[in-house]
Design brief:
heterotrimer; B: about 325 residues; mainly alpha; ABC transporter involved in vitamin B12 uptake, BtuC; two-stranded antiparallel sheet; about 70% helix; globular; C: about 375 residues; 16 helices
């Protein structure tokens, strides 16, 4: 397990953040190294999605910092964060339903200066299912395919890191496995991934490292396999035990 | 079939209905785009349309002093540029401050703008009617000869032909913009989901500016076409257009520009055809109630199908 | 002495019209301040109230239907009821939709009402309108009132004629102003009670968090329609006073949306939406500014025409009114942006559960 994070792509350092007066994250620290999949798991309401929104500047960070490749991006507005190379796939409402698959990808490339055509072809290679549906409205696709469109759309820029917010929520087990396989494929292209998941077991299965969030702070950290094997964590989330 | 009744029906009801429909359609495009991209009903749209017509009149009058006779369609170009500036200025000073608060605040601001713009026009140009183009519009001779050879008689003045052609060109250009260009696709994307557009990195402010520009061009065209048709300018004409344009936008479905065009044509035709003596000799509906037709259609749509015919957004 | 009477009468007419506008603003406050309903059809409800009152109370006429010579209070009551009925109909159709649609629908219904008033000449005398509308207190000096029951019980027509001949011609003006202000005060008291009642608190809850109110089992749609109808009834009553004040009403200029709907909105926003006192204060303030600015503008135009005798001031005269409207519009925008709460901000009614609520507000929102 790599505890050194001097060359981390993204790091959240001692974050205290929330909406308005309500504080949700109390002292949260997470980092993602190059070529890593990092999972954030935890019970409902632990602040998992909030952590991602803090990175995107969608809520108010009171203390602590968000650093992307040595650049401090704390409280930077979403659009600027995305221009700097952070790609984000929201949990729901993550494709433009009235736009075709291809148009969705083109919108994903909004901040990309050149090479959109070439990148499109790369995406259709990475997501072969989408190639044949490129002119279909994204709203007409199944949930799993929409998730693919959303991920491809996020990868249209040369992302320094990809943030996924519960990519398998509401999907059937078959699609779930497919999504996790795709996530590993994306890692293969050299993009590190920070993933927030409810399906802790599968998420930890594909992750290099994981964080267990409880009450807005990290409670446990470890390798994906290590956490998956930890009996305490198994009792908390994985086994569905009581 | 082509008897006196057909002649009367086509020339005095159908064609005027289509002309009116084109004007409503162009106005409704701006309303539907603003409603779906900026998420509010812009009450100032009719007044902006009216001010576009006044600006065109002024351009023509200035050219007239210089000894030039400008066609309204030419005068429309500089007028449209001024209308776009007016839209962008209004947005910057009166709408943008409310972008992150409740929608109704912007609606209120637009309601205020409606009065401010109308009063400004009344201060500058005066409250009385102005003549736009003098003289009786003669029917296009080529068209009437051609059509009478075919056994019917179409008497369409040139001004109406210009209105039809202008509307078709604008709708084709709009469809190219929305489907083929990056900014047009982004307009559709923001209309689809502003939040997602935001986190996708789309420059929403730029999209909003593009919306005002498109809306401004369409509104100027609608205003100029209207005064070309009725040949005079009135400060109340924007307000009178407002309700039919909203009705057209709602009928077509909010956020659906083609729906707005279709809705505009339907409303325009319905208003004119409501005065046709369908039963007996008297008009079906007294011409005084023409403007009520749009409202009736709108109310029926709101009850039966608020999302409109083309499945637009319903809030 | 004559001059003082003139000032006094001007002051009275400010109070009268200000009071009528205050009633409109109170009605709008029920719509917007209490329930968050964006009603931009005030002029429609005003017209319905005014015409109902006028048709029911005028003497029989060949120009329009009736008049029915009914007692004045009955005419005013009917004005409220008609206005309320129309509001109920619109409410049933539009209130479940988003606020923008209600705005479009109300602006539409106002236009349709004016269209009907203009076109149904047999009933309303069309664009020529209705005149000789009886004004409260002044109407007693009309022959048809003092020569009929109940006034003819107390004196012969000759006696009455002599009695009114002995009064100054403006005798009715303080009485009419007093009546308007009294009605305004009564409505204010009723609305204050409503605001602090469970009904009022429920309205606030619905406005602030509709889904929570719905989840708590409140019939949101019904409450909103109630607020819409009550507000419209108050506007109908104000419309009846408006008709009395003007004595001659016609569809186009009397019921100009800019001068009714818009002015009432500016009054409520400036005074403070949600606050009944704010509505009243805003009405008197804006009406005073409105009519004082008219004096100032006419005065300065006179001055200009006296100094520069060569200038034709008729252009200025015809445009000044619009400039005034434009400035009022800009005033509204400034208030909306800088002082959104108005002069008297809304005071939330004290709720017995308020303390508990604050203690219990924790947890995550997302």
């Amino acid at each position: 397990m790599n505890l050194d994070h001097s060359d981390a792509v993204l790091s959240l350092n001692n974050l205290i953040a929330g909406y308005g007066q309500t504080e949700i994250l109390h002292n949260l620290s997470i980092y993602v190294n190059p070529n890593e999949i990092v999972a954030i798991i935890g019970p409902n309401g632990a602040g998992k999605s909030t952590a991602i929104k803090a990175v995107l500047g969608l809520l108010n960070i009171k203390e602590g910092s968000v650093v992307l490749n040595d650049e401090n991006i704390t409280n930077t507005p979403a659009q600027k964060v995305i221009e700097r190379g952070i790609s984000y796939v929201p949990q729901t409402n993550n494709v433009f339903v009235n736009l075709s698959v291809q148009e969705n990808l083109e919108m994903g490339a909004w901040t990309r200066p050149t090479g959109v055509e070439a990148r499109l072809e790369e995406m259709y290679e990475l997501f072969p299912d989408l190639a044949e549906k490129r002119s279909q409205a994204a709203g007409s696709l199944s949930g799993g395919q929409r998730q693919m469109v959303a991920m491809a759309k996020a990868l249209m820029v040369d992302a320094k890191i990809l943030l996924l917010d519960e990519p398998t929520a509401g999907l059937s087990p078959k699609y779930r496995s497919e999504i996790f396989a795709t996530i590993q494929k994306i890692k293969g292209t050299g993009v590190p991934i920070l993933i927030v998941e409810q399906n802790a077991k599968q998420a930890l299965g594909v992750s290099d490292r994981g964080y267990v969030l409880v009450d807005g702070a990290n409670r446990h950290t470890g390798t994906g396999a290590g956490l998956a094997a930890d009996p305490e964590i198994a009792r908390m989330f994985l086994g569905g035990g009581h | 079939m082509w008897d006196a009744f057909g002649f009367e029906f086509v020339n005095f009801y159908l064609i005027p209905g289509l002309v009116l429909g084109c004007i409503y359609a162009l106005g409704a495009i701006g309303i539907t785009l603003t409603f779906s991209i900026l998420r509010f009903a812009n009450f100032a749209h009719g007044e902006i349309m009216m001010s576009g017509a006044y600006l065109s009149w002024t351009v023509m009058a200035i050219a007239g002093y210089a000894g030039l006779t400008l066609h309204p369609l030419v005068a429309m170009v500089p007028a449209a540029l001024l209308v776009i500036l007016l839209f962008l200025g209004t947005d910057k000073f009166f709408y943008k401050p409310f972008r992150n608060s409740e929608t109704i605040k912007v609606v209120m601001a637009s309601f205020g703008m409606m009065l401010i713009i109308r009063s400004a026009v009344q201060v500058i140009w005066g409250p009385n009617q102005l003549t736009f183009v003098r003289g009786i519009a003669k029917p296009n001779p080529v068209l009437s000869d051609l059509s009478s050879d075919l056994g019917m008689m179409l008497i369409i003045p040139n001004k109406h032909l210009f209105i039809f052609a202008g509307t078709i060109i604008i709708v084709i250009a709009l469809s190219y913009l929305l489907n083929q260009t990056r900014i047009g696709k982004a307009m559709r994307a923001v209309s689809d989901s502003p939040d997602l557009a935001h986190v996708t990195g789309i420059d929403v402010d730029k999209v909003i500016r593009a919306t005002w520009i498109v809306g401004g061009i369409c509104a100027t065209a609608a205003g100029v076409f209207l005064v070309m048709d009725v040949q005079m300018l009135e400060t109340t004409m924007g307000f009178r257009m407002l309700l039919p344009m909203f009705a057209a936008a709602i009928l077509g479905g909010i956020g659906k520009p083609y729906g707005a065009v279709f809705g505009g044509l339907v409303i325009g035709l319905a208003e004119e055809l409501s005065a046709y003596p369908w039963i007996g000799d008297a008009p079906l509906l007294s011409p005084g109630y023409k403007t009520g037709v749009a409202f009736a259609i709108m109310v029926v749509m709101l009850i039966v199908r608020p999302q409109g015919l083309f499945k637009g957004r319903s809030f | 002495m004559e001059a003082y009477v003139g000032y006094f009468l001007y002051f009275l007419s400010l109070l009268t019209v200000g009071g009528i506008y205050a009633i409109f603003a109170l009605g709008l406050n029920v719509n917007w301040g209490f329930a968050g309903l964006f009603n931009v059809g005030i002029v429609g409800f005003a017209a319905v109230g005014a015409y109902t009152y006028a048709l029911l109370t005028t003497a029989e006429s060949t120009f329009h239907i009736g008049g029915f010579s009914l007692p004045l209070p009955f005419g005013m009551f009917a004005a409220m009821m008609t206005s309320a009925a129309i509001a109920g109909l619109i409410g049933l159709i539009c209130i479940r939709l988003r606020a923008d649609y209600l705005a479009i629908a109300t602006i539409g219904i106002a236009e349709i009402i004016k269209l009907i008033l203009k076109n149904e000449s047999d009933i309303t005398n069309g664009p020529r309108g209705i005149n000789k509308i009886p004004r409260a207190w002044e109407h007693f000096s009309e022959e048809r009132f003092y020569s009929s029951w109940p006034m003819n019980w107390f004196g012969t027509p000759e006696n009455w004629e002599a009695f009114f001949g002995g009064l100054p011609h403006w005798y009715w003006q303080p009485l009419f102003a007093g009546t308007v202000l009294l009605v305004m005060y009564l409505i204010y008291c009723m609305l204050e009670r409503a605001r602090t009642s469970p009904w009022g608190r429920m309205m606030t809850a619905i406005r602030e968090n509709e889904s929570a109110a719905r989840a708590a089992g409140k019939d949101v749609t019904r409450r909103r329609i109630e607020a819409f109808v009550i507000g419209a009834a108050i506007m109908g009553l104000a419309g009846a006073f408006f008709a009395q004040h003007l004595r001659l009403i016609e569809p186009t200029n009397t019921f100009d949306p800019a001068k009714v709907t818009f002015l009432v909105w500016v009054m409520l926003i400036v005074g403070g939406s949600g606050n009944n006192r704010g509505a009243i204060l805003g009405a008197f303030l804006i009406w005073t500014i409105w009519s004082a600015s008219e004096l100032v503008i006419t005065g300065s135009i006179d001055l200009i025409s006296n100094i520069f005798t060569s200038i034709d001031t008729s252009l200025l005269v015809s445009r000044a009114g619009f400039l005034r409207m434009m400035l009022i519009g800009i005033l509204m925008q400034v208030i909306l942006q800088r002082y959104p709460a108005g002069i008297l901000p809304e005071v939330r009614p004290a709720s017995p559960k308020a303390d508990k609520k604050i203690a219990g507000s924790t947890g995550e929102t997302l």
